Each structure stands twice: as C-alpha cells, then as structure tokens.
Amino acid sequence: MSHIPIEVQLSSLPANPGVYQFYDLEDKILYVGKAKNLKKRVSSYFNKTHEQGKTRVLVKKIKSIRHIVVPTESDALLLENNLIKKYRPRYNVLLKDDKTFPWICIKNEKFPRIFPTRKFIKDGSEYFGPYTSMKTIHTLLDLIKSVYPLRTCNYDLAQDKVGAGKYKVCLEYHLGNCKGPCEGFQLEEEYNRQIQEIREIIKGNFKSSLHYFKSHMKLLAQEMKFEEAQLIKDKIEVLENYQVKTTIVNPKINNVDVFTIISDEVFAYVNFLQLSHGSIIRSHTLEIKKKLDETDEDLLQLAIIEIRQRFNSHSTEIYVPFEVILEPHLKVVVPKLGDKKKILELSERNAKFFRQDRFKQIKIIDPDRHTNRIMGQMKKDLRLSMEPRHIECFDNSNIQGSNPVAACVVFRDGKPSKKEYRHYNIKTVEGPDDFASMEEVVFRRYKRLLDEEQSLPQLIVIDGGKGQLSSALKSLDALGLRRKIAIIGIAKRLEEIYFPEDPIPLYLDKKSESLKIIQQLRNEAHRFGITFHRNKRSKAAINSELESIEGIGNKTVEELLKNYKSVKRIKEASLENLAQTVGMSKAKKIFETFH
C-alpha cells in the first residue's frame, strides 16, 4: 500500500463512519482515529496547516492509510478504543490508559442483582453493552429501580439459608424498594419474571417502561411537582434518543475469527475480523490474484490458513459465509441471523469497501488493469465468447412520427469513442415505424463497414426489447453476420437484457458494472439521437417558415441563414439590408410578410 501516493489513497476513502490508521514507511502504526465521515476527516490532515508541531510531524511520516468501516459513530468510538489499547500507537495520547467502557451486569445468582461494572468476569453472569456513556447506564438503572423493586444486598439467598431465617429485611424493604426475598416475602418465580422484563428494557424495548414514565410525569405535573416532573422528562428524552445495542460488540461472542470473501474475474478480497471478549481487535483485508478459475471456497480456505498464521490466531471458532473444510478441531459456523450474521455482514462490507478503494486507485495508477477487469466481467455477465472491446449501440428518435432519425454510438474499452459516432436519416421507412427503422440503420451501418473492410464490433446493443432486437437480427442475417457479432437488446422498463432466440430476459444486478456500461451506452445513444432530432426539427421549422413566403425557395433560404444565422435576425433586418442579400424584389416579399 505504501507505494500508492497519499492523494490516491485519500481519493478512494468512503464517506462513512469508521476508524482510520496511519502507517509510516516501515509499516509501523502511527495513529488510530475515529470519524463520522472517513473521507472528510482523513483528508483534513493533508489539506490544512496544523498549529501543533506534533501533528505536522505525524502528517510528514504518514505513508499509508488503512480504515475499517462501521455502522455508527458509537461503534467507531468503541473500535478506536480497542485498537489503541492493542497497538498503543506513538501519536495516540487519549484512550491509551486502561480505562474500559462500562457494562450492565445481571449477576448469575439466586434473585439476581443488577449493577454497572467495568470488569467482565466469566462466571455465567449476563453483560449488556458496552456503553459509551455512564449517564445512559444510570438512567436505565434508575428507570429499572423505579419500576421494579430489586434487592441490592449481596447475601447468598439459597433456599436453605432463607428458610433457616438467617437474614433480616433492611431499610430498602421498609422504603418499598425491595420486597424482602431474604425473608421469603417474594417468590423466586415472581422475581425472575421481573428480571426477564428488565432484559427487554436493556435490549431497547422501552414501550411499557416509557408508558409508565409518561403517566408518572403527568401525575407529578398535576400535583405541581414540576422539578420532579422535569427530571423524569429528561430521562424519557435520553431513553427515546438512545440506541442501546451495537453490532460491533456482543459479549456472548468471544475469541472468534470472522472471514468473508468478495471476488471478480481477476482478484479476490478476503476480510478478516478478530473478536476477543465480544470486541473487534483486528481487521485486515487480503487481496489475492487468481491464477486459474479457483472457486471462492478454495480461495477462502487458503486465505483463512494464511491469515491465521500471519496473525498467530488461536481462536477455535470461525464464522464464514459458506461451509469450508478446515482443521478438525476448528468449529466452523455459517451464521443465518442475529448478532453473528450482523458481524459477518460487517466483515463483508469492509471487503467491499476495500475492493472499491482498490478499483479507484487502480483506475488512476493502472488504467489497463481496470479496463481488463471490466471487459472480463462483461464477457462473463453477458455470456460472450470474447471480451467486448468494441461495442456499438443503436437508438431510434422520432417524435409524433416527424423527422425520423437514428443514432449509433461507439465504445472502445468501455469508454466513448465520440469521433466514431454516427447519425442516420431514415430513408426507406414511411411514418413512425421503430422496427423497420432499426432494420434499415443496422443494415446500412454494417454494409458500409463490410464494404470499407473496417473492423466489426464484438457486441451490438439495441435500445429496445424483443421487437427491436428481432429487426436488427434480420439485417445481420441479410449481411451474413448473424453469429459473427454478439447482439443484445436492453428494455427500459426493468432494464431486462434480451438475447437472440432466448425468450427469458437476463436481469443483471443493479450495481453491476456490466449493466452500468450498457446503461451508459444506451443513454449516450439516446442523447446523441435526440440532439440530432431536435436540430433537424428546428431546421425544418425554420425552413418551412421562410419557404412558405411566395417566391422564396431553398437557395434563398440558405443564403439568408448564411448571412443572418437565425429567423429572428431576418425578421428584424431592414428592407435595404435584405435587398443587399437577396435583391429588392425578394426583400420586399420577406419584409412585408414579417411586418
């Protein structure tokens, strides 16, 4: 990555939330940061003068930039914290200490306590979070305590000890904050039902709790207790605006490696996310050049072994998008839904972004590789026998049957070759007949190319469905080119692609580069044809307006337009000026018509 200029790396960054990492010439990590918009934030380091000397030195040392895309800013903050703790980059001062984010714990015990903690102890307790704000945790816990009476003591409430009368109720019981399970005043079944409802609140299902808060707030307002009502209103706002769950971290997912793959004709991109105690501690994308027609399964299998060795991973559980054969002691999981599936999707999104970045960089640095990849993709997507290096697209233009014309646009290596564009006036067809017009134009185009012994295209694109495609095929049959040139039709409605002798159209992925080039061809042919058609109609309207004057013919019209450029100027010209151009006799007729 270091050999790619910084300007090119910046141009390919996505405008998404994420974490960025700066590396020096020796590939040592310099700095980790988070951003709401990666492109904007990272670019700001390079396009402004920094007051701090440390930042100026940092920017001079940066030779490569890597990034991880995440769904939200909150996720970026958590991931930034994890990466700074792991790598301790030289230029990171904040978050270098051992501070961790807080969790809400439901303790694994009889009559469970609920409390905030920064320690993650593996004792079967449930942990929810982590949270980026302790204020949110306190608001949630205050809400829970105000709705559900829970114990706060740390007694061991085993049945035999409670039955033996070992404990006595405390002040919390007398204040109404606890129902006294220590003396058997509350059944374990009822208490556990409360805990289940509390789990829903923590997960983000606030419906019943918010209803309770709002009615309590109204009651306080009616009793003129406005300060207390305001405090409850503040809590409601925090709860309504807070998004509790994050897809970046899930406490139940521990020591897991996640792998996904995105591939095209030439390269594959494998993303690796390493999770420890529910947090992402590493993200890496490997680019693999294909040598033969290896399957995604083969490539992913090889990449998993390579990446795990490179990063010395000892995780025994692996999430992948499809089944792969690995060592027997490894547990391979193909997630179908829930948090595991979300983490897999996040990995795939990072692979896609990496691939897009590489495309943008390659387009600048190595345009030939970019072109070769697209041509290879089009050959595969459109079932062609060879790469469509030379493509021609036809479009008919007639409005209400007037001035029928057609356009042919030419693309070479996926780009417009405007000097080869051609316009056609329809000669043999009377009235608005798109099918017959298409047949005429295709015949004229390739008859000429054959006569002049010019190179033929590898692909013809017809703007229209099965009808227009059939008409074009008639011309290819007449010229003996039926199976020598591939031909397809593209229908506007659903962007269906029709093939000869195949009644079922092909629907390409809307994001497919092959479809984008075909759409670009079609749109360019339409634009080129419409422009010609408008010019022709405009010229015809001008000519008819002047020719309708008695005694004025084609030659006189041409002479007038040559001198005056427009009908408006002819109308504004004086009798003497007109006479100098066409003589006094004709000048009088023109002048009198317009005045």
Give the helix level as a range of percent.
40-55%
Instruction: Give the N-to-C terminal Cα separation.
Output: 74 Å
- The CATH architecture of the domain at 387-529: 2-Layer Sandwich
- Strand-residue proportion: 15-25%
User: What is the number of beta strands?
Assistant: 19
Number of helices: 20
Radius of gyration, in Å, reads: 37 Å
CATH classification class of the domain at 387-529: Alpha Beta
CATH homologous superfamily title of the domain at 387-529: UvrC, RNAse H endonuclease domain
Shape: elongated
Largest sheet: 8 strands, mixed
Structural class by sheet pairing and helices: alpha+beta
**What's the multimeric state?**
single chain
CATH topology term of the domain at 387-529: Nucleotidyltransferase, domain 5
- Average per-residue pLDDT, rounded, comes to 80
Note poorly predicted spans: 93-99, 242-248
